[in-house]
């Protein structure tokens, strides 16, 4: 950093604890951190029914917490899931909220914490900075290494059959975050690959964003990419590898902090319509579109991609053009080795839907404005065709 650095801000949650098996002493942790004792846990049925919550539930009850579990969260959660969760929380007189699960559970937990304290209708919250007032205490505990939602101030909801909208506000940052790598051990290889690539997309797009890119977001993005690139394949091939799982979780967390402060761009803009129309997991849709967008952005982003090549490959002494090309090749090879699906056709996406997808992608103007290169509807159509 030089004396000429432009002023910037960097926001993140209040406190984070990194501890293997930390969830098993959740009660002691929350009793130390908060005075509230009526806890709502927001999660999904798979995690609840498969016992992943059990050690935390036992610890919480031992430390005097009254615990209510809402486990009806689904991927790409619609508004009705949020509103049902808020009613569930109110009936239980919840005064503290925990998101425990993937990005969808943590996203819902953010807004439940807000709506327990606010009379604002949901429709007034959409957009940037529209949440007013305070919220209930909020704890986030991720069980995947991908979204970074535990450290972001963003919630994405499905608002119609195929459309999504975002809520961005400082109040959505958690008070406390627990990173317990043991909670990610049972994640299947394909989901490990998709969520890991999702986190790499966060890091890459934060590093190349046109707006709010800064010294700290760059540091976090680079280290996130280094950690994930070095451990993704190991985590996919040997899910019980503690070192790889912890590195992936830390990398996803750092990437989340990076993109929360330096927003994502065209990969996400093109991925959202795929999730909306085909109900594909968010991490997978990002993985499917990453390669085409990297190549499309090369003309403007080559110097930045060259820096990322230095991080993940250690290449030096070559031109930006050569190093950036090597970076794109490296990412393609890494995604291939991870085992994640690589083509739209392999995921049931129909070629005759590309025009519809391209039109929908243009609605993501808050994301497209961050891309290093302008993306028109014609460009989006070509990118979907390349990904097919």
Throw out a few tags for this protein.
six-stranded parallel β-sheet, Dehydroquinate synthase-like, alpha domain, three-stranded mixed β-sheet, 388 residues, 2 domains, 14 helices, globular
Terminal Cα separation, in Å? Answer: 42 Å
The unreliable regions are none
Write down the CATH class of the largest domain: Mainly Alpha
| Class from helix and strand fractions | alpha/beta
Number of strands: 9
CA-atom Rg in angstroms: 20 Å
Proportion of residues in extended strands: 5-15%
**Strand line-up of the largest beta sheet:** 1-9-6-4-2-3
Q: Round the mean pLDDT to the nearest integer and report it.
A: 95
Helix content class = 40-55%
How does this model look, in words?
The protein is α/β, with parallel strands linked by helices. It has two domains: 15-183, 3-Layer(aba) Sandwich (Rossmann fold); 189-387, Dehydroquinate synthase-like - alpha domain (Dehydroquinate synthase-like, alpha domain, Up-down Bundle), CATH 1.20.1090.10. Helices cover 51% and strands 11% of the residues. It has 14 helices and nine strands. The chain has helices spanning 26-33, 45-49, 54-62, 79-91, 103-115, 189-208, 215-237, 242-261, 266-278, 282-313, 320-338, 354-361, 365-368, 377-387; strands spanning 15-18, 38-42, 66-70, 96-101, 127-128, 138-142, 154-158, 164-168, 176-179. Strands 1-9-6-4-2-3 form a six-stranded parallel beta sheet, sandwiched between helices. The protein has a three-stranded mixed beta sheet with strand order 5-8-7. A hairpin with a 5-residue loop joins strand 7 and strand 8. It is globular. The termini are far apart. 54% of the residues are buried. The mean pLDDT is 95.
């Amino acid at each position: 950093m030089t004396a000429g650095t432009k002023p910037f801000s960097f926001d993140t949650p209040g406190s984070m604890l990194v501890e293997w098996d930390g969830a098993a002493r959740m009660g002691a942790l929350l009793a130390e951190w908060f005075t509230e004792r009526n806890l709502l846990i927001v999660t999904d049925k798979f995690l609840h029914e498969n016992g992943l919550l059990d050690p935390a539930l036992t610890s919480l009850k031992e430390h005097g917490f009254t615990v209510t579990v809402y486990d009806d969260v689904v991927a790409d959660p619609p508004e009705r899931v949020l509103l049902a969760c808020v009613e569930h929380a109110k009936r239980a007189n919840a005064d503290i909220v925990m998101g425990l699960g993937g990005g969808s559970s943590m996203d819902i937990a953010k807004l439940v914490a807000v709506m327990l304290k606010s009379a604002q209708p949901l429709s007034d919250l959409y957009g940037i900075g529209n949440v007013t007032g305070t919220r209930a205490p909020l704890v986030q505990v991720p069980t995947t290494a991908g979204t970074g939602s535990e450290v972001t101030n963003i919630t994405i909801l499905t608002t119609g059959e195929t459309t999504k909208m975002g809520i961005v506000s400082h109040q959505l940052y958690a008070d406390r975050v627990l990173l317990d790598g043991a909670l990610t051990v049972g994640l299947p290889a394909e989901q490990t690959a998709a969520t890991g690539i999702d986190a790499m997309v966060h890091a890459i797009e934060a590093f190349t964003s046109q707006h709010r890119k800064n010294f700290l977001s760059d540091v976090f993005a680079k280290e996130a990419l280094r950690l994930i690139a070095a451990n993704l394949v190991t985590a996919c091939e040997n899910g019980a590898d503690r070192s790889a799982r912890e590195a992936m979780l830390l990398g996803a967390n750092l990437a989340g902090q990076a993109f929360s402060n330096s927003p994502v761009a065209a990969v996400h803009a093109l991925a959202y319509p795929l999730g909306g129309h085909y109900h594909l997991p968010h991490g997978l849709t990002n993985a499917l579109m990453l390669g085409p967008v990297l190549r499309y952005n090369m003309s403007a982003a080559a110097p930045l991609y060259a820096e990322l090549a230095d991080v993940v490959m250690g290449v030096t002494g070559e031109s930006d053009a050569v190093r950036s090309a090597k970076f794109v090749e490296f990412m393609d090879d890494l995604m291939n080795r991870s085992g994640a699906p690589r083509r739209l056709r392999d995921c049931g996406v129909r070629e005759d839907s590309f025009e519809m997808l391209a039109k929908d992608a243009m609605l993501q103007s808050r994301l497209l404005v961050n891309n290093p290169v302008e993306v028109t509807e014609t460009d989006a159509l070509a990118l979907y065709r390349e990904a097919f």
